[in-house]
Amino acid sequence: MKATRRVLHQLSACTAAVGLLLAAGCSGAGSLGASDNEVTIALVSNSQMTDAQKLAPEFEKENPGIRLKFISLSENQARAKITMSTAMGGSQFDVAMISNFETPQWAKDGWLLPLSDYAKNTPGYDEADFIPSLRESLSYKGNMYSVPFYGESSFLMYRKDMFEQAGIKVDQNPSYQPTWQEVADWAKTIKAKQVSDAGICLRGKPGWGEVLAPLDTVINTFGGRWFDEKWNAQLDSPEVKKAVNFYVDTIKQSGELGASSTGFQECANLFGQGQTAMWYDATSAVSVLEDPKTYPDLVGKIGYLPAPIVEKPNSGWLYTWALGIPKGAKNPDGAWKFISWMTSKDYMKLVGEKLGWARVPPGSRTSTYTDLPEYEAISKSYGPLTLQSITNASPNKPTVQPVPYTGVQFVGIPEFQDLGTRVSQQISAAIAGQISVDEALKQSQQYAEVVGKSYQEK
């Protein structure tokens, strides 16, 4: 009964996938891999993944017996479709893009193939080169079940030229960590002096991987948590209320217009186009923002600071988009060949040489920061901070007070896909002004209580 309930929770996101482009639907029975030499790859449609598709002909040249087929989906769609296919044992995908949220859970449930033996038998692959915090987050019982394509924490990005216009001076001490109150004050100043359309861009788009990613780090550092040690829901606690009110008020007072539909990509566009002076988000954003081909006017104008804090230091999240092989994959050997190519040291160099060094996938391999002098040269302003933020992230102790779960910007339980999505919808409604923060958290608390009770009963 418990195993059935666990699978049903994992499949709850399937409803979001109905009507997608994939003809196989949610049944998990269809196969998009039409031949033995075809490898079907499900990717999230972020810029780094688009780069991989552009470079895929290089892989096919080196491996003439393998044909690649990409299925590129938005983040929310990809989560739903990949979850359904993998949970049902479907053979739709040979390679699935997942994260450190899914990997250890799915490994435990037997939904993924172990990859460490593949890695050890691949000359020059060097599994030990992955940043330790990421390697650990993608492992189960000492074996990696997915490997990182890029890794990220979170930090604050700001336009140095706009700050200068507004008369804002930032402490340049390397150990300096801004507080959230300082950030809110900077945003108000920027807005009041009309230096930019918005003082700061913060995600407000529904989705547990959208608005809840930055918001959860705010809740954590304000002293809040989703559950106490006994799985009692805490979303209506004073600490959580204070954090969410602060987040929503900051957006309403100094944030971007239409914030309830703004996610990572929308904030990237606004920041890149000079419509916001600050953006708190993923360290991986540098791959786009620092690319002179994409935003030539931005080069040298962006400053970077650690994730803002209140009570808890090192409040940045830990996340990685990684590649795994579902147990039902039709071509696992071909899948590994592609995965090992896309996550290799050589691939990092290929991206730099073909597309530009700013486009190198950040935060996955230590060697990216030590063995690529071209990347080290262009990433002086953000590379060391990215590595430091990923290394210092604390998913095993994400909150001020003890909790029974792991994860910084998510709760590492299968039910969180559904719970987080529901709560995110409430928060987005509050950001849009449709309901109050108190109303949003009252409903969210009820959702969380149902999940908490299921763990109290175990």
Describe the structure.
The chain contains 19 helices and 10 strands. The chain folds into 2 domains: 38-151 and 319-379, Periplasmic binding protein-like II (D-Maltodextrin-Binding Protein, domain 2, 3-Layer(aba) Sandwich); 154-316 and 395-457, Periplasmic binding protein-like II (D-Maltodextrin-Binding Protein, domain 2, 3-Layer(aba) Sandwich). It is 43% helix and 11% strand. Helix 9 (212-221) packs across helix 10 (238-254) and helix 18 packs antiparallel against helix 19 (437-456). With 458 residues, the protein is of the alpha+beta class.
Biggest sheet character: 5 strands, mixed
Determine the mean pLDDT. 92
CATH homologous superfamily title of the largest domain: Periplasmic binding protein-like II
- How many individual domains? 2
CATH-derived topology of the largest domain = D-Maltodextrin-Binding Protein, domain 2
The largest sheet has its strands arranged as 2-1-3-10-6
Total beta strands: 10
Approximate strand percentage: 5-15%
The parts where pLDDT drops under 50 for at least 5 residues are 1-34
* Helix and strand run: HEHEHEHHHEEEEHHHHHEHEEHHHHHHH
Protein name: Sugar ABC transporter substrate-binding protein
Signal peptide: 1-29
InterPro entries: Bact_solute-bd_prot1, SBP
Pfam family, one: SBP_bac_1
